[in-house]
């Protein structure tokens, strides 16, 4: 019993699978895309520390007060979202949610007009792990599609309607 509990503990702590999850969903009433990123907290903090030299201390008493600035900076550098040929570079940070091993970061991207073409580059955590995979679910009106990004495929483009 203790052995299986230790195994589960180490599996959760070390999480040998390196994966992120991104969800992009269009809110027709607000004319925005709501984008959420889910990453393993420890890996994300390590990556931010290596890239920018700061300790986020997410979920701790001494959490970095301007941590959201580093979230946004990292995602601007490793994720791009292009709608109808326009690179949506300035998402608005909404909130952060955490559980025991992961952090969800929520953004909104305002858009104008109907979406005809989409381009997405997703290189999240690829600068840290050779085996990183990034899952993405994209929803726009009745269109819903899933994509997988990795070192061999960091970008996609597709047309709607």
Structural description of this entry:
The protein is α+β, with helices and mostly antiparallel strands and 161 residues long. The protein has one domain (17-159). The chain contains three helices and ten strands.
Layout of helices and strands, plus pairs?
Blueprint: H1 2-14, E1 19-27, E2 32-40, H2 41-52, H3 67-78, E3 79-83, E4 86-87, E5 92-98, E6 102-110, E7 117-122, E8 133-140, E9 143-149, E10 155-159
Parallel strand pairs: 1-8
Antiparallel strand pairs: 1-2, 2-6, 3-4, 3-7, 5-6, 7-10, 8-9
Overall shape? globular
The poorly predicted ranges are none
The largest β sheet comes out as:
6 strands, mixed
Mean pLDDT: 88
Q: Gap between N and C termini, in Å? A: 55 Å
> What series of H and E elements makes up the topology?
HEEHHEEEEEEEE
Which range does the strand content fall in? Answer: 35-45%
Category by helix and strand content: alpha+beta
Number of strands: 10
Rg: 17 Å
Number of domains: 1
- Helix share of residues? 10-25%
Strand order of the largest sheet: 5-6-2-1-8-9
Number of helices: 3
Q: Which terms would index this structure?
A:
alpha+beta, 3 helices, 6-stranded mixed β-sheet, 161 residues
Report a brief summary of the structure:
23% of the residues lie in helices and 42% in strands. It is α+β, with helices and mostly antiparallel strands. Strand 5 and strand 6 form a beta hairpin.
């Amino acid at each position: 019993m203790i052995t299986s509990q230790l195994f589960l503990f180490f599996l959760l702590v070390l999480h040998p699978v390196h994966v992120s999850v991104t969800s992009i969903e269009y809110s027709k009433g607000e004319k925005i895309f709501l984008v959420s990123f889910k990453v393993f907290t420890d890996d994300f903090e390590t990556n931010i520390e290596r890239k920018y030299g700061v300790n986020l201390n997410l979920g701790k008493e001494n959490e970095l007060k301007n941590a959201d600035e580093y979230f946004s900076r990292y995602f601007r550098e490793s994720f791009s979202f292009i709608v109808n040929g326009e690179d949506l570079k300035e998402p608005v940070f909404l909130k952060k949610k955490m559980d025991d091993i992961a952090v969800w970061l929520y953004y909104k991207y305002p858009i104008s007009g109907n979406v005809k073409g989409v381009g997405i580059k997703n290189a999240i955590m690829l600068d840290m792990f050779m085996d990183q995979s990034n899952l993405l679910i994209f929803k726009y009106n009745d269109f819903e599609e899933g994509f997988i990004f990795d070192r061999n495929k960091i970008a996609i483009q597709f047309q709607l309607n």
